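Issue: ligand-bound run for adenosine-5'-diphosphate - logging full I/O for the record.

Environment: standard queue, default settings, no custom constraints.

Inputs:
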Amino acid sequence: RPLVVMENVSKQFSSGTLALSDMSLTVNAGEFVSLLGPSGCGKSTALRIIAGLGDASSGAIDWPASRINARGLPEGDISFVFQEPTLMPWQTVFGNVHLPLKLRGISKSAARSDILATLATVGLQDFADAYPRELSGGMKMRVSIARALVTKPKLLLMDEPFAALDEITRQKLNDDVLRLWHETGITVIFVTHSVYESAYLSNRIVVMKARPGRVHADMPLVTSLSRD
Ligand code: ADP
Ligand code: ADP
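Outputs:
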C-alpha cells in the first residue's frame, strides 16, 4: 500500500541550482527506506517535498493514504526529525512532547497518558519533568523522536538525525529506531550519507547521485530484521 508516490519530480531553486531531476519514488506502508548519497545530492530537498514542506518545480507528488487538506498537502500523518533537536528550553520534556498535540488543541491533561507512554518508548519515562539543559545530546534526540511519535504518524521522516552524536550514542539510537519500527508498524524514510547506517537500519536503500540530484539505484535488502 503506497504512502508516498513521487513521479518525475524536479526541483530547481531560484538560485538556479537543479537540486532534483526527474526523481520517481514510491514508498509503501511498512518499509524502512534509507535515502543514501553524498552531501548535496538532494536528499533533504526530496525529504522536504515528501513531507509537504517544499514545492516541486515539476512532476507530481501524492500521498494516497493520507487525508489531504485544502492546500493539497497531507494532514497529520507525517512527522519529521531533524539533526538539531530544536527543543524549547523553557519547557520540560513533557511540555516539549506536548507541543504537537497542543497545536491540535489537546490540553496537557488530556494528552498526559499518551505523552508518558511515548516517553516510555524512548526510555525517558523518568525525565518528564526535566528541562532540556539537563539532558545529554542523545537524550535530547530521544525527546525529539518522542515529539515526532506522539501524534502517531504513519510516516516518520528522519534527516541525518544522529550525525552530530558520538558513535556509541548513535548506535544506541539506531537500535532504538529499529525497535520502534518493529513495535509500532510505522514507515520510515531515513536520510544518511553512511552506507553502514543505511544497511544496518533499512530494508531498502535508495542511492542518490548529485549534479543533478537523482535516483541512481534502488535496492531491496534481505535483513534479519524483517517485520513480515
Ligand atoms: P543533501 O541533503 O543531499 O545534502 P540538499 O537537498 O540539501 O542535499 O541540496 C541539494 C542541492 O540544492 C545542493 O546543491 C544545495 O546547495 C542546493 N540547495 C538546497 N537548498 C537550497 C535553497 N534553499 N536554495 C538554493 N539551493 C539550495
Ligand atoms: P503551557 O503549555 O504550559 O501553557 P506555554 O507555551 O504557555 O506553555 O509556556 C510556558 C511558559 O513558558 C510560560 O511561563 C511562558 O511565559 C513561557 N514562554 C512561552 N513562550 C516563551 C518564549 N518564546 N520565550 C521564553 N519563555 C516563553
